[in-house]
Amino acid sequence: MINPADQDLTDAQNELYAWIKEYMKEFQHSPSIRQMMQAMGLKSPAPIQSRLKHLQEKGYISWQEGKARTLKIIDEIIDGIPIMGSIAAGGLIETFSDINEKFDISDVLRKKEVFALTVNGDSMIDACIADGDMVLMEPIRDSHSLRNGTIVSAMVPGLGTTLKYFFKRGNKIFLEAANESYDPIELDLNEVVFQGKLLAVWRKI
Hints:
By secondary structure, the protein is of the alpha+beta class.
C-alpha cells in the first residue's frame, strides 16, 4: 500500500476502509455515500466524507469529492513494468525487440513513503496535471530545503489544501498555479504547512 509513515488509521477510518475493500472486491465498483452511511450506521453524510478525506490524505484511497463512483483503493504497487525500448517523439526509430529490463517502482515508492492525492480542478493544467489525475507525493521533511519551482501540496489552516508551484521571495511564500486564470497565493511562512512534493502523475486513459 502507498502509505505515509506514522499515519495510522483511527478505528472509524479503518472500519470504513475495510468495508469499502470488501464491497469493491464483491461488486467491482465503488459504493455510494448513502451505502457507506447505511453500512456504518450513520444518518448524515458528513462523517463519511470526513473519513474519506482522511483516507485520501493518508494514501489509502483516491477520491473526487462530489463525483459519484470515483473512489479507488490504492493497495497495490506495480512490481515491474517491462521496458520495451524507446519511442520517438520526432522521427522514426527502431522498435523494441528483446525485453531485458523492468521498470520497477515498488522499492522507490516504499522507500520514499509516498502518498497519493486525487487532483480536483484545473489550476495546474499547464504543468500537464489535469482534473481527475492522481499525483504521487513525497513527504517534505524540511520545508527550508524546498527549491523554488517545486510542485507541492500545501495546507493553509482554515482554508484547505492546494497543489501549486512553490516560490519563496524574501519573507513571503507564493503558491503559483500553472494556469493564468489563477492568481498567486501570497502567504507568510508560518501560514502554510507543506505536506509533500510531486514525484509522479498517474492518469488513467
